[in-house]
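[09:14] KT: can someone run the structure on this one? pasting the chain below
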Amino acid sequence: MKKFSVMIFLAALTVAAGGCSLKKTDKAPDEPVSVTEAETTIATEAVTSTSASETTTAPAVPDDKLEPASGKYLYDLAHLIDNNSEKEINSYLEKLYRQYMLNAAVVTVSDLHDKAVYTYAAEAYFEIYGGEGNGLLFLINNDTFEDHLYKTGSCTHMITDTDEKSLLFTATENIVGGDYISAIQSIMNLGEKCPSHVFDNASVFSADDIKAIETALSANTQTNIAIVAEDSIPAGKDQKKYAEELFKRHFADGKGVLFLIDTTKKTIIYHSDSALSPELDAALKKAAPLAAKGDIAGASKTLSQPVSTEKTETETKAAQ
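[09:31] RB: done, structure tokens below
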């Protein structure tokens, strides 16, 4: 791990967060501070080992090249994380990728190549995931010491600035102490605030829509249902193939139903390893005309509530 001379004065460290980034900067003391001979020696050694242009000088060991790979979510380009920690972090990020359908990634870097931290994070996300879907990318920046959480999709609605700033502060403290597992898990845990049943890859739902649909789907104990709104099917894949791919990604046990709503073609298809229940089949028939009219939220709400909680008059009498 790269050692920072500023860490000598950890007690004076303050963190200023703006938007979704966190700056690690030193704050000048309000009153003169006496410097002992030992401190002077340490400071002198630090200056000797690092130049004033350290943040713009390439690291001693060049960063690895970012090379996206299936099943890989941690890209330790700056060589900061040991192998055991890397496996644990990658496993947690895979959980976010599957259960929350989040395009999750963590990237460490020692050389931004003169790019702004936001620009570097955005470009890294685009390179790994094509810039699509709901995603979180945490950039640990060992160049200018300004870490950044890049968000896209429904995550921008579900994660509050307050939560983000608070966890970025905690993550930075952990990074300073060399505890990368805790740092990454604390900040990426924000992904668990995102929906786990409805996935708006087309940005067609309001925050209230997502909340209502997610609440209904979470309450359904009969069938595990996932709804994906998509405005662009990946090249080389038809709707059925893509729905199957999403199903396998989300339902590790193969149990559930995934509805894919193509917001461009205004159609709904589903994938499941078993036949639809009569209730879901009926819900699909009601939802399809709504999707055809462009009412994607209405179609999704119909699919999310296939079983009425109210008994009919006949059912009530029969029960008496």
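[09:33] KT: thanks! The radius of gyration is 24 Å.
[09:34] RB: yep, looked fine to me
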